[in-house]
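ok trying this again, last paste got cut off
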Amino acid sequence: MRRQRSIVFIIALVLFWLLSSGWLTAPLLAWAQRGANPVARATFSGHTAIVLLGSGTEYDNHDRLVPKRDAIARIEKAAALYADCTHIAARCDVIVSGGNPQRHEATEADTYLPWLVERGVARDDIVLENRSLTTYENAQRVVPVLQREHYDSTILVTSAHQMPRALLDFHRFGSFPQPVISNTRHAQVGVLPRYINLVNANIALHELIGIEQFRVYHAIGWF
């Protein structure tokens, strides 16, 4: 038993080093982000919807609730798309989807709202969906809005690691948006362990497990 515990400890230590130093995190991230396949250039036409998926909130040094890093990248990308859209399409809406899975003082959608307005998105063109707690629920609650409003063009904005799973969910509900990547995560490969590599590994595993869960649930008729 003592020898078995020693072997388990050594394996766990090696695994921790491979993840924290980036050597295992890098392929995990590449695997999670490989199916994103974003469009080279988004197409705007008629009544266009830009769907922005939530990515959590956190408290800053002044105890203010703010979007997380990935969320800020998504907000900036959605705002840039909106600016381009207003020069081409007849009408442009930004649909922000994100509830409060972290149980903070406000939902993701409500927290992101002023950040979008500050970046030039008109308040009247922002639609808040603030009840969804998962990527699956993002699609489940947003697609009926898309169908009800009869949008001519739909664009989905999220991070590279979430895009493959998000597209699976939106396709499940009969929506086929144009995927636009807001940001891509990269491992920092080296000798010394880094906390960010553990964060990235956790994110990659979450997405990979989520995709397999979707496939299993779909195969048995739950999705």
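PB: full thing came through this time. The radius of gyration is 19 Å.
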